[in-house]
């Protein structure tokens, strides 16, 4: 999952233009492949940074948002038995899963900035981000699951099994 090829393909001018485009309302766009590529690159950059932090810091000490405690409490009230060590994509993205997640997500609409942004989530918390171990979820779903993993000790082995990676120069 490298962004270097996509960055080179879009070019500096395209990335600069894309940065200003990404701040505009989504309803102004149709399915523009260049905008989708920029969103994918942004999601990947977020994933790289987050994973490097997990490799460097005790996950129990991480603060992802100013609302971590509320997100975690609400998540565990609404999803008390959801296993977060290995996420099953079908459970999240099935019609039944979506009907459970949608009300949860909407509770944070005016609380968590960019709550609906597409964000990469590792399916198995024991692994790193890869094409097979990542799915796209909303930012609030990412926060809910990663906060649970951090607070419940499921991300503890990341620091012992992985080292931070050098970030691409185009970031």
Structural write-up:
By secondary structure, this protein is mostly helical. It has one domain (4-161): yst0336 like domain (yst0336 like fold, Orthogonal Bundle). Helix content is 51%, strand content 6%. The protein has helices at residues 4-21, 33-56, 68-78, 89-93, 95-106, 139-151, 158-161, and strands spanning 118-122, 134-138. Helix 1 packs across helix 2 and helix 3 packs across helix 6. It is globular and about 40 Å long.
Features:
171 residues; PBDC1_metazoa/fungi; single chain; 51% helix; two-stranded antiparallel ribbon; 6% strand; yst0336 like fold; mainly alpha; Polysacc_synth_dom
CATH homologous superfamily identity:
yst0336 like domain
Overall pLDDT confidence: 83
**Helical content class:** 40-55%
User: Strand count, sense and closure of the main sheet?
Assistant: 2 strands, antiparallel
Strand content: 5-15%
List segments where confidence is low: pLDDT < 50 over at least 5 consecutive residues: 1-12
Sum up the overall morphology in one term: globular
The CATH topology, please?
yst0336 like fold
What would CATH call the architecture? Orthogonal Bundle
> What is the CA–CA distance across the termini?
15 Å
SSE ordering: HHHHHEEHH
DSSP summary, beta strand count: 2
InterPro entries: PBDC1-like_dom_sf, PBDC1_metazoa/fungi, Polysacc_synth_dom
Organism: Gryllus longicercus
Protein name: Polysaccharide biosynthesis domain-containing protein
Domain Polysaccharide biosynthesis: 35-159
